[in-house]
Structure formats: structure tokens, C-alpha cells
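Worked problem 6 (solution included).
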Amino acid sequence: MTHTLYSRLAIFVGAGFFGFILWIIYLANTGGNSIFFDLIRHIPYGDKVGHMLLFGLLTYVANLALQSRHFSLGRIPLYYGAVLVSIFVLSEEISQGFIPSRTLDIIDLVADAVGITLFSYLSCLTQRYIDKQRQ
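Solution. The predicted structure is:
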């Protein structure tokens, strides 16, 4: 697979996954129910694990879709995909303070940040592997 093909595949997967996340947010905002919500309730700290995985995986595919483009803040590389997901997450979490059926929770933001950070690192490792295969 070429580098561009990986990126196109990541765009396709990322768009679908983003749509899934929007659907989950819609259900939560409207007080709807889903098998995913039932599953999360049966896992210890399932809500926090769910936040970490949902937004971590979205970060992973966003970083790959953008071919790991980044800028540096001092010595720390910040991936554009991770920044975009972080902005979305922060906006979504803050909006929960204005929706009666939702709760603004700082621990959810921490779980989101852990997922974004962890999966940014994994996308960095994946990008290195892809670049090595191209050589």
C-alpha cells in the first residue's frame, strides 16, 4: 500500500467513525438508549474507558489521514489531527453543561486527553512503520 492509500483509507474510516461518535452524542443528548450504553454500564469505569477509546481512536485515524502532519510547541510535536479532535472534544464536553440530560465532568476530559495522547503516540509509531515500508 502506498502512503497516499493509507491516508485515503484513514479518511474513509475516520469519517465513518466520526459519524458514529456524532450518533452516540446525539443519543446521549436526547436521552436515547443504545446497546453501547448498556455495555458501558456493565464495565467498571466503562464511561471513562469509552471516552478514552472513542476519542483516542478518532485521533489515531485523524493523525493518519493527515499523514502525521504536525507543528512543534517547544520540543513537543502537536499533530494537527490531535489538535482538531481536542477542539471537538473540548467543545462537546463544555456543551454538556448546557444540556439538562448531560453532565459536564472534568474526569471525562481527563479520559479524553489520555486517549488523545496515547493514540497520538500510537499513530506516530504507525507512521514510522509506514515510512519505513516505503523506503
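Discussion: The longest strand covers residues 70-73.
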